[in-house]
UniProtKB/TrEMBL annotation:
Domain EGF-like intervals: 100-138
Alphabetically ordered keywords of this record: Disulfide bond, EGF-like domain, Glycoprotein, Membrane, Repeat, Secreted, Signal, Transmembrane, Transmembrane helix
Species name: Capitella teleta
Name of the protein: EGF-like domain-containing protein
Cellular component, GO, one term: extracellular region
Region (Disordered): 245-288
Length: 288
């Protein structure tokens, strides 16, 4: 007679007596779908569970639903036969499931780490390139590869993440170009002089506007221009020259005699062909 359900789920009678030390002898494993196996021979009434096969359902079966594993199933293991792909760990809550490892949380040789499922990728700063392994950044030797301005960099010197130049005599490094090219000293001097001249002109113009604020208040909606007014430059005049300029700027009015107009005169030819004049200002019509 068979005795059923006297062992915990997944167990059945071992070798020897059915009861040892007043406890059921339940040394053997069985892996049924849901129900308990038969106590005597471990037979599963409802069949083997996923990942198991054999007469008593205690042999590994990776061919059915991958043995219940999310990634890899190993048939030669009795316990925890599931494993995970590289870069992924077994879940602490279920050894049949796998969890991704965030490699970016640890140390890496990437300038910008981007986590992916089971791995990660890198983005590198300017002057660096991605290593063939795809997980680290390495310096680019711009000098060896000719990745510099050959015409304006006299001697290329590689740096970590960039490069610089050694310049010939009468040349200096061009700081405006990240010290990666050379520029002639004469050009630098001209640029400095031009900048200084522009600053001086600007300062003088501001000072002149501050000393003559009324000149800058001329309405813009009129045709009047400051250049139309002959105003002497007060900065170059001495105090004793003001009176002379004032007198010379006032022109004398013409006299009354000068404003008297010559009367209109009409010329006639007499019978003797001698010209004579007639004052049109007279009203009696008598000739002279």
């Amino acid at each position: 007679m068979l005795v059923v359900a006297v062992c915990p789920t997944g167990k059945y009678k071992g070798v020897g007596d059915p009861v040892i030390n007043d406890e059921p002898n339940c040394e053997n494993e069985c892996h049924c779908t849901e129900l308990q196996c038969v106590y005597i021979n471990g037979t599963c009434i409802d069949g083997c569970g996923i990942g198991w096969k054999g007469d008593v359902c205690n042999e590994r079966d990776c061919e059915v639903e991958n043995g219940g594993c999310q990634h890899q199933c190993t048939e030669d293991k009795r316990d925890e036969w599931c494993s995970c792909d590289e870069g992924i760990d077994i879940s602490p809550n279920d050894w049949k499931k796998c969890l991704d490892i965030n490699e970016c949380l640890g140390e890496s040789d990437c300038h910008e780490c981007i986590n992916t499922i089971g791995s990660y990728t890198c983005r590198c700063d300017h002057g660096y390139e991605l290593h063939p392994n795809g997980t680290s950044c390495g310096d680019v030797d711009e000098c060896e590869r000719g990745m510099y301005d050959v015409d304006r960099c006299h001697t290329c010197v590689n740096l970590i993440g960039g490069h610089t130049c050694l310049c010939n005599e009468t040349f200096v490094l061009d700081k405006s170009n990240n010290n990666e090219t050379c520029i002639g000293i004469a050009v630098v001097v001209l640029l400095l002089l031009a900048a200084a001249f522009a600053v001086v002109c600007f300062v003088k113009r501001r000072r002149k506007q501050e000393k003559n604020p009324k000149q800058s208040e001329v309405p813009t909606n009129t045709s009047f221009k400051i250049s139309d007014v002959n105003v002497p430059d007060v900065e170059i005049l001495e105090e004793n020259e003001y009176e002379e300029i004032r007198d010379s700027s006032i022109e004398p009015l013409p006299s009354a005699a000068a404003t008297k107009q010559t009367p209109d005169v009409t010329y006639y030819n007499t019978s003797g062909k001698h010209p004579t004049t007639l004052d049109n200002s007279t009203s009696d019509g008598n000739s002279a």
